[in-house]
Amino acid sequence: MSFLRALLGRSKPAQPDLDALFGLPSAAITLQATAGLRPTGTGSVAFRPAEGRAFNELQQSVTELLNAGGGPRVEATTDEYGYTWLVLEAPAQPADPSTGGISELVTDIHAVNSSLEANGYGPSLLCSLVAFADGDGRRIALVYLYKRGTFYPFAPLSGQRRDNALELQVEAAVGNDLAVEKEKSRWFPVYGAPGL
Questions:
Q1: Which InterPro entries does UniProt cross-reference here (predicted)?
Q2: CB-based contacts of 13: which residues, under 8 Å, 6+ apart?
C-alpha cells in the first residue's frame, strides 16, 4: 500500500499524539528564559459538538470531573463558527508557582482530549491551546492541532492582526521542545479564542 501511495504522490496523514502535550511545560521554561513569556494559567480545548444526549452527558461529566476537588475552573463557550471551547484556568495556587501551574493545566487539557477521543469524538477535536504573556502586554498561544499532532504559535494583535515576528521567534525557541507544524499555511488564526 505504501508503494501505491508513493506512486500516486499521497502521503500518510499525520496521527494525533496527545502525549505531545506533555512537552508544553518544557516549552514554557524555554519561553520564559528566551522571550520573557510566562504561562497565564489558562488553556482551552476546541471541538465541534456532536448532536445527541451521549455527547452532552460526556461534556457535562468531563466539566464536573475537572471542577471537582480543587481542580481548574472550567467554562464552556461557543464561538461564531459553532465550535465549543472548554476553557480551563489553573488553580490560583499551583503546585509549582514558577511555571504558573502549566503542568497541572496540561494534564487537565490532556484529560479532556483523551475523554473525547476515547468516546469516539476524536474527529470532532479541532485544537487545544495554552496562553502565555509577558510584562509588555504581548500575548501568544501555543496551539496544538489535534489532527496533525503538531504545535504552532499564534500571537494576536488588535484588529485581527498577528505579530508574525513574535510567532517566528517562539517557533525557533520551542523547536527542540515541541513538534512544530512545518507548513505555515496551517498556522490558522484563532482570533477571539477563549482563554487567549
A1: PspAB-like
A2: 147
